[in-house]
Batch of 4 targets.
Target 1
Amino acid sequence: MFSITREPVPDDALLRTFRGGTHPERWGSYVDCFAVGVDRNVSLADFVFAFYTSRLFRIERGLLRLLINAPSSRSEARAVADGTTDKFAAWYVGQRTSTQLLMCDRYERTRSWFRVAPKSGGQTRLQFGSAVAARGGGHSDVSRRPAAFEPLLWFHVVYSQALLHAAKANL
């Protein structure tokens, strides 16, 4: 879809290595990674800002405002992208490096991960991934994922790819 590829989550991805939060043992039940190439240099800040201000994500921002009273603005998207704030809508910054950003939701149920990987010739590989917490203690027990997640998995995969495509288009 849209030249987006699904690939394994890199071993050094914050989505795998970050164990902060209230129940670090619950992470790893579900993780994914989608990637796309861009024919120019893209900074992490530009990628995150393009993602959170894309037309598609603006719909999600509106729903978050209405459903869980988690408003957000374009200027707040710029601030989290630039690293001058650690909160955006329903998320907080779990960890940040120069090439990666991990956002954790305020309910400690999901995480979103962004990464830029510069390539030769002025190109950049954009990566976006998600993690869903298990209900119990074991992170490898697939049956411990939230029950509502399983029927929505196909939507999550398609939506994640569409979000990455929208971010690329917004760049």
Target 2
Amino acid sequence: MGAEVQSTLLFETTEQIYARVFSELKPRTPVPVIAVRFRRFVSANSFIRFQENRLEVKISDALESAPAPIQEALAQILLSKLFRRPISQHWNDRYRRYLNRPDVRTQLNALRQARGRKQLSGPIGNHHNLEEIFDELNQRFFHGLMPRPSLSWSPSRSRSILGHYDMAHNVIVISRVLDSDSVKRLALEYVLYHEMLHLRHPVDHQGARRCIHTPAFRAEEKLFPHFELAKKLLRAI
């Protein structure tokens, strides 16, 4: 980016950035009325709507202090999605590199922790106690050294997300669909073991890259006894 363009960006309002990007993507369409608002979202969420010659953009207030080049990248991403255009890797990488900065990740985690509402039903299910299973797996695979996070069954019987680890709230949530006498305990143990590995192997952020399952994660995951059988049982679910 040249010095002249950088200087222009510094003096543009957020609305002006969206107007300019709109003209770049839709040069034959008159620029609509543009309203950009920063809202108290839980995370770095953004929404855009174009209706009756009015473009409304709602952006997380976590991004309010983001520099102009990041606002431009987000404008390119949101407007490209709105008009169903391919998103340039250049803009996507610029935005992702900003979100992956350690200070920004810390800020977003603090927001999720302060504003996010986590519905937890506790570790004791109808058929299984997650704390007991965690402690057993901790002894078998981690020498009992892994600190136990909060554990909970999910509010619903999700079949698409069988488990997840929420770092902001330090909680592992397991789908209630696994709390059944018809589900093999091996399948439940594997899902909980998988989520425990997320504590051991945090998400790797490098530049624009965000790797949830690192090579070290994948290698240790395969150490689970009857790994392939557990995967097969879960596919059946």
Target 3
Amino acid sequence: MPAIKQVAVPADALLCTFRGGRHPELWNAYRDSYSVAIDGAVSLAQFVTAFYTTPLFRVERWLLGLLPRGASTDAEAAAVAAGTGKRFAVWSAGARTDSELLMCDRYERTRSWFRAVPGNSGGRLQTVLYFGSAVAARRTSSGALRMGLGFGALLAFHRLYSRLLLGAAWRRLAAQRVNR
């Protein structure tokens, strides 16, 4: 079982630095980040493809497919992961570097962040995989920023689900390495 840790979002991460969208001031309310190490070299494209094509994420994809323009395919996931596609389900690629991808939902309420960082541990090549999220605040009638009513109720589920998704991607990548 992989050791998934909740970690601080790196200050230089696209999840912190990307200011695209209609209301960039709304994106400082909530961010999270989880990480897990995997032996060997894993590219960002391999990580994102594995993440979006796990059986667990397919359930979310099925639910999103019930929305207008929410359906998605494995081919679309792979294209976004490789940088040749821009859209996947209800998200579009907001920003990308060689090691990071930031996906923005079309409602401008959430963002998903992926990062793959190669390194060494005890002389072994490893890649640290990061997955994080941001949720936009809402502006009240007085102009104050606050999280929506359902946010607190769903936060524990969101944190568990994020860990489960990252673990599912890790297991898929580990299985691909064994089957080579």
Target 4
Amino acid sequence: MLVDRMKKSDDYRFLLLISVGCYCGLRLGDILQLRWEDVMHREYFEVMERKTGKHRKITINSGLQEIILFCHQNLNAIRSITPEQHIFINKTGQPLSKQFVNRRLHVIFVQYRIKVQNGSSHTLRKTFGKRVYQMNNCSESALVLLSSIFNHSSISVTRRYIGLSQEQISNVYVNL
């Protein structure tokens, strides 16, 4: 919903950052290292996760590919883009800082009335997890898959990570 609403704005860089976060489930540090050549006109890209050292191959689905092309076209019209350039850069051409991204995401969440507790870049990764879980009928196998993707030690960690424990507790009170 946020992605669709942001398409009408001119904040193409953050539209793309939010999309990559929600479609790929990467940590912000890994997203900020992406270059245009990694994602343009490709079916997948590979990343070595900085935190875990784990190698991941991420398939780019058609919805994300459309957003990448849309954002590239609009950003290229503003400032010439080279394939080897980082996607998420500041005015001096350096990759955005995590602090700046998190401050800007907080503003975006407020601006678009997205209700999240402690909204930050991690919200995007958790959104990816929640979407995968729901698209797989909230199954145990979805939690196993997410546990592997997130490199969690157990599915109970994954369950807490995507907020299932608190959601289930809240539902107990609602359904009394």
